[in-house]
Amino acid sequence: MLKLPATMTAVGFEAPGAPDVLRPETLPVPVPGPGQVLVRVAFAGVNRPDVVQRQGFYPAPPGASPIPGLEIAGTVAALGEGVTSLVPGQQVCALVSGGGYAQYCLARADHCLPVPESLPLDQAAALPETLFTVWHNVFERGWACEGETLLVHGGTSGIGSMAIMLGKLFGLTVIVTCGGPDKCAAALRIGADHAIDYKASDFVEEVKAITGGKGVEIVLDMVAGDYVARNMKCLAMDGRHVTIAVQGGVKAQINMAQVMTRRLTLTGSTLRARSDSFKALLTAEILQTVWPLVAQGKLRPIMDQAFALEEAAAAHTRMEAGTHIGKIVLAVA
Would you place residue 106 in the very low, low, confident or very high pLDDT band (cuts 50, 70, 90)? Predict the structure, then answer.
């Protein structure tokens, strides 16, 4: 076992608010329980759910750390009872339910992925949240198949960029929407087949033109609200609409006759509150199906900017401004 300090620096908040409520604090280093490992964090990913949690709208689930941070990369520092799959000193990245904005973080051993030698730790920390989310929602819930077409809103976000890259690796045609010509150009560089500037044109009409009137098989929706009815107009027969965020509002008005006559499927999910056993199964599937592409260097996250842990407020400010392209991370160690 590595020698551990008694305390660590973490970034949290006392009350919800603007980014400046985030502040460093000194906390005890957590102790891993059965099935857990303690990770000395090198980098932590910054994600939209962290922002929503800080704003007071996405509290940590029961038993999870109240410290923000849903993905980390670093070195295994200590093992909990029963852990035999990992060893101290091993580099891992992990999906966690909270606690990532800290020098040390608990993770379940079966939610960890080994970091290949060719993968820098900052990039490793930028993978789990978007990779798990996109894989589950596009390929498991959305039943994406080779040769189909996927529409993704926010093509240059962390989720959007991952959806582009995974989609192309698994044989999909990917259409994205972006706000402005610069972001559209960036999405095309990432690998999107088509990028629609939603500020300059109607994405419904653009999708119709691109697909020759057929529509897309899958929509990955992060907006909800009044976008849902518009998204449904983009779907082909037997199309699947998968919602993973409600940035445009929680309520949508839809024509159920369209759902029936065009045999549409509307689904969605959130990842954080899912059971440990579900996440373990998802980790195992990703390890088998996607992680070889990471090891081969064929899948790498699009990186935006790294901030020091103590600059978490600035990282949140950048994310809320919406100008970032790809993933924002915190450099912890």
Answer: very high
Residues 213 and 315 in one domain: no
Q: Does residue 94 contact residue 282 with C-beta atoms inside 8 Å? A: no
140 and 235 together in one domain: yes
The total domain count for the chain is 2
Q: Mean of the pLDDT values across residues 164-192?
A: 98
Residues whose CB falls within 8 Å of the CB of residue 171, separated by 6 or more in sequence, listed in order:
145, 146, 147
Q: Examine the domain organization and report whether 104 and 209 are in the same domain.
A: no
- Are residues 246 and 324 both part of a single domain? no
Per the domain annotation, does 2 fall within a domain? no
Out of 222, 253, 268, a domain closes at: 268
pTM for this model (two decimals): 0.96
Closest among 190, 185, 182, 194 to 166, alpha carbons compared: 190
Q: Which pLDDT does position 202 carry in this prediction?
A: 98
List of long-range contacts for 314-323, beta carbons under 8 Å, 24+ apart = 314/19, 315/46, 316/19, 316/22, 316/46, 316/50, 316/51, 316/54, 317/19, 319/46, 319/48, 319/51, 320/19, 320/51, 322/179
Strand partners, 267: 242
Alpha helices (runs of H) in the chain, residue ranges in sequence order: 48-54, 121-125, 128-134, 158-169, 181-190, 203-210, 227-234, 256-261, 276-289, 291-295, 312-321
Domain that holds residue 182: 131-268
